[in-house]
């Protein structure tokens, strides 16, 4: 039973690692050159601080997720993992919220502020950003599950005594 | 000792309640009429979905924070509070990140997307939004502390046996 649970969380962590890494790759590779009237410009993630923040956080969580995969089951560091899962879940949530808020303005614009939607001009770029956000959202959900699971394991006094 | 800790967390929860409530009030009351060329417009929080989200989350957390103040110390619901603190910390983080991302565009603009900064036209509105975000940031930090504290209390087996 304990073995099944271990394999299950290992798989969950592996998928979470894949999603954060994919989010970074998709976001970084999103760039498109467009010409509006006489102005030519290149839309890329690094122009928007919120997208840069999204990439940095997902990259850090990818490295963390990769390292945790190789942590031995009996290691005392698993107690630290509860806290780190919490920190990284919060960071992922924060980064995807910021990126979503900006992507929403890119898609719909904000008429009162006079910010026009740009997705009609750079459709490919927008779709790629959307893809990165969807993958990022899956990773947030996975990290929330992982955090709840490690919290549950740590909170359960019976499991606590066994370890 | 236990009494001092209880008073301390009560105070922390009371301050957290005050900050979330203030964030709601400051954000809701932020509106300014401005005229640019021949166009007259009113900047208010409800034009921006990210600010609406910020207000809704802070209002929900205010109600939660108010109710928790009256929870008796021996109540079994304190175990639920650990989980709710986690959920609301994540929601607060998410809402302030989204609002910050939009406020940053309002202040600095985004030259590549052609979004002009609007804070020169509606300085009062911008300052009030900034105020709400600062108060909101304090409440995020307080809820993180409260969550860490309730997690610590729940994780500590000695405290667990005592309760």
From TrEMBL, chains A, B:
Residues 5-142 form the Casparian strip membrane protein domain. It is found in: Cell membrane. It is a multi-pass membrane protein. One of its GO terms (cellular component) is plasma membrane. The chain crosses the membrane at residues 7-30, 50-71, 83-106, 131-151. Keywords: Cell membrane, Membrane, Transmembrane, Transmembrane helix. InterPro entries: CASP/CASPL, CASP_dom, CASPL. The keyword S-adenosyl-L-methionine does not apply. It comes from the Eukaryota. Homodimer and heterodimers. Belongs to the Casparian strip membrane proteins (CASP) family. NCBIfam families: A_tha_TIGR01569 (TIGR01569). This is CASP-like protein. It comes from Gossypium harknessii.
């Amino acid at each position: 039973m304990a073995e099944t649970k271990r394999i299950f969380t290992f798989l969950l962590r592996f998928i979470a690692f894949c999603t954060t890494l994919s989010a970074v790759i998709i976001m970084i590779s999103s760039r498109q050159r467009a010409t509006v009237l006489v102005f030519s410009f290149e839309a890329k993630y690094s122009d928007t601080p919120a997208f840069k923040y999204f990439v940095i956080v997902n990259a850090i969580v990818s490295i963390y997720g990769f390292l945790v995969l190789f942590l031995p089951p009996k290691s005392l560091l698993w107690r630290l993992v509860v806290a780190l899962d919490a920190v990284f879940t919060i960071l992922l949530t924060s980064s995807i919220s910021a990126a979503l808020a900006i992507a929403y303005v890119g898609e719909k614009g904000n008429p009162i502020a006079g910010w026009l939607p740009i997705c009609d001009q750079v459709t490919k770029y927008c779709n790629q950003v959307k893809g990165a956000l969807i993958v990022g959202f899956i990773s947030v959900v996975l990290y929330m599950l992982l955090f709840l699971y490690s919290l549950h394991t740590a909170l359960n006094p019976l499991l606590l005594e066994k370890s």
